[in-house]
User: What shape does this take?
Amino acid sequence: MESRVKDLSLAEKGREQLYWAERNMPVLLEIRRRFEREKPLAGQTVAACLHVTKETGVLVRTLAAGGARVVVIPSNPLSTQDEVAAALAQEGIHVYAWRGMSERDYYNAIGFALSFQPTVTLDDGADLTSTIHKLRHGIRDKTLDYVMETAGSVDAEKLVAGLRGGTEETTTGVLRLRALKSAGKLLYPIIAVNESYTKYLFDNRYGTGQSTWDGVLRATNLLIAGKNVVVAGYGWVGRGIAMRARGLGARRVIVVEVDPVRALEAVFDGFEVMPMDEAAKVGDIFITATGNIRAINLGHIFKMKDGAVLANAGHFNVEIDVAGLERVAVAKRQIRQYLEEYTLPNGRRVYLIGEGRLVNLVAAEGHPSEVMDLSFANQALAAEYVVKNKLAIDVYKLPDELDREVARLKLKTMGIEIEELTEEQRQYLTSWELGT
Assistant: This one.
């Protein structure tokens, strides 16, 4: 099977979307031009488990320009842009993705990618990476049964032996990789792209900050001004969401945090901080960004106002207790395309956006192309790095010089020049003799 997408007739529309993304991703295009000349990925098979969006399409085209055979599968069942998947499939990229996949479909897609015996993996949430590890370590479960339906006769030992390395895009995924490393079970080297400055300072903060609210607004069309907004988690994603809530005129922005340093930072940034038990009583809109399970549990939900809106900006749909909500609700109905109303036994109603999945990609289009230009430039350079360098098995940060190169290229495309150190200043910074 070369590809499986929803409808190949959508390809022309997908090419238009890719054109628009490329107009706003000049750094990645600059890298593509070099890749076309140098072919640093020649002979490699890259399996990309990413949100299949127009921005991902620009990355995939860049990897293919570098000489790679590319297989694209989704990292979320509801985030695929079907027109982009169709366009990529028509260009000879191997795609197994469509919007609205079942759990079985989703893991069939991972099996499809593994059937190509990839030598490099690009991941967003570590589902592809963890599946490879389950397969090699002999950990069988239902999802692995689904994987094997499309993986063919893939040999786990041979697969791992052929892997040069991988990358990981998200905070959640990096946590899973660190857990594998701590358990002594990590099987191949991974670049934690999420730890690059030009990724998390911009994608996580500015990209998610804007796109999360884009998803909330498309799903609800609510006025944010005057509302009490509760943000669970004050990492870089939470910071961006809270910042944009204030900019939209929220009356109160309340942060819920377990880390005392981050909580203190939120206070110094001008936000209220309190436990979720207290925030649940006053919030109008709740957004989770913790990377952990049940940041909002049933106890919290029962304390909420009639009409409270719940959304999740974390990678997995575990941060809001959706299963518990489904179990106790006395009624449920769909109000808008991505908005469901649950009536609780106490008569109050709460509204869940996008099944509790990643709100910016379920109810909107994900991050703006301009910010994904940075993230996917890191992905492309990371793929090149793991191919060119024989790395020991570990979780790595992309070298700082590559991080700075991405920033330099972005500034150049924006027409911005920066200062340079004089020789005297360089000597001062590298000398111990000079002082006051």
